[in-house]
Write a structure and sequence with these properties.
Helices cover 31% and strands 15% of the residues. With 226 residues, the chain is α/β, with parallel strands linked by helices. The protein folds into two domains: 151 residues, SPOUT methyltransferase, trefoil knot domain (Alpha/beta knot, 3-Layer(aba) Sandwich); 59 residues, Trp Operon Repressor, Chain A, CATH 1.10.1270.20.
């Protein structure tokens, strides 16, 4: 999979993609993540990429022309399955979206910054808009890192034990059950006996029961689809 990211502040994305699973996925050729500096497509002597809003109002807006020039350049090199815009005023990322995007071949992600982008970009070029939650952060760089991580870890070979991803929270619209490791007892706190029994069918039943209990307590909204 190839993922291209257009950002006004590309250096914010250096660390998230240079460690752990994402780094290994790139080294093994499973994922190719390329970050593009929007400033390189800026206008005039000072490479301008933002301007004030028509109609007045606080905050700067990413301009139309630099973004369009960058998008057209990238589209001339390959076809993209989705052109994604990261913005808080969009449907919230969930596991189903991550699963679907992990099956694509080429993704192009536009990162919002300042007050966002000229609406005409969203109207003409964007095919999918994604938010990571009902809150606002300084820019979409960290949001795009969250999206990329959620996608890449699902690609076969990215995680050593692929079954691990299949048992994560939200894969079946349930939260994960409690998990334990050694020691079996610590400061009077014991691991549930069923997990030590070796009876794997009963262990799976216990895990499913606890997953339902936890989901009902914390995220009952998920149960309507479970």
């Amino acid at each position: 999979m190839r993922i291209d990211i257009i950002s006004a502040v590309p250096h914010l994305l250096e660390s998230p993609f240079n460690h752990s699973i994402i780094k290994r996925a790139q080294q093994s050729g499973i994922a190719d993540i390329v970050i593009h500096d929007l400033r390189e497509y800026g206008l005039g002597k000072y490479k301008q990429i933002d301007d004030t809003q028509f109609g007045g109002g606080a905050g700067m807006v990413l301009m139309l022309e630099p973004i369009v020039n960058c998008i057209k350049k990238l589209q001339s090199e390959r076809n993209y399955d989705e052109l994604i815009y990261m913005t808080p005023d969009a449907p919230i990322l969930n596991q189903s979206i991550a699963n679907s995007l992990s099956l694509k071949e080429n993704l192009l992600i536009l990162v919002g910054h300042y007050k966002g982008v000229d609406q005409r970009i969203r109207d003409k070029y964007i095919t999918k808009e994604i938010s990571i939650g009902d809150y606002v952060i300084t820019g979409g760089e960290l949001a795009s890192a969250v999206l990329v991580d959620a996608i890449v870890r699902l690609i076969p070979g990215a995680i050593g034990d692929e079954q691990s991803a299949l048992t994560d929270s939200f894969q079946d619209n349930l939260l994960s059950p409690p998990i334990y490791t050694h020691p079996a007892e610590f400061e009077g706190m014991k691991v549930p006996e069923i997990l030590l029994s070796g009876n794997f069918p009963k262990i799976e039943d216990w895990r499913m029961e606890k997953a339902f209990e936890r989901t009902k307590s914390i995220r009952p909204d998920l149960l309507k689809d479970a």
